[in-house]
Records
---
Amino acid sequence: MPPRSVTSTDLIAQARSGSADALSHLFTQHAPAVYRVALRLTASIHDAEDIVQDVFLGLPHALRGYQEHGTFDAWLKRIAVRYALMSKRGADRREAREISAAPDDASNAPDIPTQLTLERAIAQLPVSLRTVFVLHDVEGYSNQEIASLLSIRAGTAQVRLFRARAHLRAALEQSV
Amino acid sequence: MSNMGFLIDRLRMHPRAATLNHYVDGALSPGQRRRISTHLLACRACRATVDSLAALQSATRALSDPPMSPTLLARMQERRLRGDNVLLPRADDSSHTTPLALASNSRVAAVAATVMIAVVGFFTLSGNNASASTRVGTMSFSTSTPRAGDTITIVYQAPSIFAREHALFARVRMYRLLASGVQQRTTAPEIQRVRMHDDGDGRFTGQFVLPVGVMMARMAVENEQASQVDSRARSYWTMLAHDAKGQPLFDALMIASAGSGSAQWETLHKTATRTVAAFPDSIAAWHQLAFLEHVLRGETDRAAQAQFAERLATFDAKIRVAVPSAEADARLMRFAQTIGDTQRAQFWRARLERDDPRHPQAVLARAVDIIGRYRGTSMATDRWREALPAMEALWNDGGYISDNVATFGYQLSMWANDADALSRWGPRYIASDSSSMWTAYAVAQSFTRHASLRAQGMDMLRRLLQPVDSVHTPLRPLAQTVADFTRSRAELRGSMLQALGEALLVDRQPVAARDTLRLAGQHGWNLTRFRSLADATLRSGDTASAARAYALVAADPETPKPFEQVALNHLGWSSRDARWKAAQAIAPDTLLARVLSTSTRLPLDIDSLDVTDATGRRLSFASVARNRITVVAFGLELSERSPLDLVRMQELSDALQRDGHQLITFALRDRPADADRKLKTLGIRFRVLFDDAHNAQRAFEANGFPMYFVLDANGDIRFAYSDLGKVRMQAHALATIPREVR
């Protein structure tokens, strides 16, 4: 199996050609990151699982458009984010779901109550605020990139980000 | 500086919230940052804001990845093997239009009764928004007014489920007219598979010749293996034969609105509306529209009812003074019956009997009379036997013209439990519905219940059990993939094997019976089947296996409590017998596994499903269905004559509530203004919702008119078209699954 930090050109080429094994390798390496962003964007385990599966099912075909500018991780994540945003299912009216965020290894975990509370608070944000917060503060996209993804102005993205943070601060303070 | 002035100065100096955010993000210039830092030294409030922003930032950066289900890779691989495809957006396509937007631009508009639907509009895309992006494509034809013999080019823009296909097939079902009359009768449908080639960018084209004599061609699109099907959400693409002037043929429209091919009721209603607009002087067209109106809306649309009554009166006045015509008599009689005008219905029936007593509708009316005459309150077998000679005489006197008489005769012979009558009416019934294996199976099964017909019934079952699994079999419905068809066939096979096994048991062949019933019981979960298997296994001498089968039946919550003692009596054991205890110990898990093996998973977009309650308040179905396991039942009538047993539904609702689940029913008709009062009068305490826009019907209607479904707490359908006797067990089974893996 290729080293985790490097995705070989061969692996991508094989997946592009339809190799199930290569696709499985890519899945093992990258699906957790896709799942993470999908889950936080949709606040739904069910939807996130569907998105992960869909992204990897469509990956062999999508790889025809991969031109190896930048890292594969970033390219895949952009596709996953675009797909997750397209796939929002009535997200505007959806209630937030409780998301289990318990890490596997409790001994190395950060403050678990804070993590659980923060995950819940993120899930309960209004979807327009949650989307911007997850993309900026969790996934590291710039305001310009977010504006492009959501077809809004950069200033609007920024306002939503600050409002999301205000919501989260209030939620975390109430939970103490 | 005064204290007040100092405070005002201090207030003026507070940075805005956005600035503090930028400060924490490190996005300020050095000079700006210095000024804010200086302010923070003296301002507790701003310092608290910055501290909490920083804490949030720190906590966000420390978030670990949420655990992903370990089964996700396997599920993805399984979908891949099933041929699932997804078309992903590009990573850098900033001008990408969402699929949802594309679908909403193409929705078919509603049509007023007096306006002819634009023929081109008839072929444009419809289908619900949620699925259009991945499952429903668009189709157009080179001509919108095809005539017999024309070669038509089909252009199909494929949805993402066909993203990897290089060839697709339009599977076309064609209908020819057998007899034109009050009811359009067609020959058995013919199937053609038209190959369509990939022109690039998901566009496929093919050519199809509309054969002479074919009135209607209905089609769906599938890939080569028929592992994926686009049926346009079961509304299909339809081609009607036209005349030289470019008008659709009357018979083509009537066939299209008559329910052939199990299209959705609303599609049939639209076609019937179009027919009336094109042929306003046709009694048959008005009758068909009135019938479909009644199906969809009952009698709640007063304006429509008034219009039908007015048209009937106009036709009545015109035909009374015209040259006698049995066909016109029959059509008026049926029209009057449909809208409840008893007086006119009786008048025109009398005229029909006078003008042509052997007309199919006259014969059918006499058959209905026979049934009505002998239907007593007790439904005693002897009473039905008395009706048999009259029905046989009717058949010999021209009743063979009517398929319905064959159905009535068969039903009568069943009620009368008369083997001799059954031997005659069974084959007639099969001949009246020759394309249906279910009809043949029903007759074969009824034969096995009579000693004189048992061998014949068993032979029929054995012939029916011959495998039919070709992708090209015309028996496969348009909307079904080969997998779906095989699954439905498996259910039918299970029923046929059960009938055969039970017949073998009665025929004193317990070992053959046991083996056949074991085959029958391999799939799914059927209490009567398990019980028959237990009986056969016991009679074949295998007591231990029989005990396990009895324990399985006893473990189902729908099995009455006394059954356990009945089973123990058969086994000759006491309830304390260790072998019985051992069988009981494993039964619940086995039953659970069996129940779950029959589950499916059909996503339902409950967030976008709007319904109304009895008071007329609009609400989202999600608000009532989410977070609880829900049994959904369709078809409630707000009257004592509801097809749903109200008492049973209430008992079921109470039982589900005790289990922590719920029952929701959908009313069959539009919400009456006094719905709330009616519910109270009927003593209904379970939840009743109204679906006037037919949103729920469309959402649930994948394989036919909805009945019973069981939804998990996420709102996905896990058991579709279920049996009312099974829903409680199914709900219980779903409750045992951890929610994350549903």
---
Amino acid sequence: MTPARAVSLAGFAVALALGLAAMRPLSSRADGGEGSAWSASSLEIRGSGAMGQLARSLAEQFMSEHPGTTVTVQTCGGHQALKALIIGTADLAMGTDEIPEELEKLSRDTGVKLKRTDVYRDAVEVVVHPTNPVRNLSSRQIRDIFRGAISNWKEVGGPDAPIEVLTVSSTSAAYEVFKRRVLGSDAVMTPRATVVGHRQMKESLGPFAIAYAGMSQVGRQQLQAVTVDGIGATAQTVSNGQYPIVRHMSVYQREPSTALADQVVASFLAPAQGQKLVLQAGNVPVN
Amino acid sequence: MRARTAQAIGLMLSLLLAAAACSKAAPPQETLLIAGNAALARYLAPVIKEFQARHPRASVVCEPGGTTAAVIALKRGAIDVAALSRLVAAEEDDPSLRDYQVCRDGIAIVVNPKNPVSELSLKQLDDIFSGDLTSWKQVGGADAPIVAYSREKAGGSSRSFSEMVLGGDDPFSGVKKVASGKAMIAAVAADPNGIGYLSLRRVSTEVKVAKVEGVEMSRLTMLSGRYPLSRTFYLGLYSKPSPLAEEFVRFTLSKEGQALLAEEGLLSVR
């Protein structure tokens, strides 16, 4: 190698080294890479609309009691909220007590551990028009009506009239509870069912209609519920497991958790705070 | 020292200097393309300016175009960061999509301080600004005509108001137009029968802020989402974004970024 060639090689190496040194170091993800809460004083809650009112009141209460904290609430489907929690764009997720299969897999694949805390019991009642003489149905009859196998009220001791089946959006918590506890894995909602909004339930219930609604809605809209297997939904029957169509509504956080997340979750469970709000909303507290 | 060694050293030194000079003279340009909601694109201006100052080699372009189009463009890889005025919808969502909440804003409904009416429902607001409710008596007030004021320009609070209250429609032709937030305050303060709207940052004590759906407008009720005329903004990233895109989102969420947004009258979320 001639000196001239050695020098040009050295020059090239130096230029390369300087160039590399001047490059920006690779930054990690926008949120710190592990989806950890960015700020010790702020927390973002996303979740099921069913828990929206509870979360909003709780957030305001928490912020007044802990000046300097920022607790934001955004409602979206429970599924979407859990996904946001797993990938790190939310700090708490609210939803039902079962994690969908594909999100279990996502949390495994991303190495994110989740912790669930049950907040209240969500009972779903079966409702009919106030003039309907049918006052009780068995779980089996309910299942058969909603899957279309029973189509006339006379088959269940009512008048000779076709049953009009109403249902709610498949993204709602009431639908999820109803599907799991009543239809089970071997039955599907009849395609003849009409979808109505939660708030339009009362006006949608014609004389021969049947629907289902969360316990708090039934109370709020004064809907006529039937007993299921002879059991009516009360705080007692929902708490002790006698009433069959029940699920827990829960709050999820990542593990290891932050102090703020633990404090907010504790607030959901506190009898004087979250649990009191649960009662006010017409639901059954866990505490 | 031999002449040839001296020559070699001299050559190496000048090559070193040349290499150093080259890396400063022709820096690699990296473009960051942000697009989406027009209001958020405007709000981000001071954040972008500061970000540019800290990253002189980056070129940041920020364009409107709408939230929905931005989500599509983001997933196609056509843009780096999406500016969103809402959470992505369930059908738009995807495990590779990350939507980070960055700030909130809100619209205040304002009436004259002497007006006994202090709360209105969303439906009443829609009806008033659509010309369907014309007397204060219809909403529990005095027997006097409602005089509705609206912002002239099709931007800023008038667009937010239209989206949040009128379902995207314009107010009816009988509204009185004002040119600015200040003019809105002056008009409503001077008109006992006036009603108008202001973005959060323009609210002053010269006018009375009405409750909407029974909820008063405050930082807490906007952060919780209970106040109905509040909006949440997000920045979206997709799949494997560039380090610059990650850094931009991180900066917007940092103490400095949040302070810049708060200075514009928005609510910081961190």
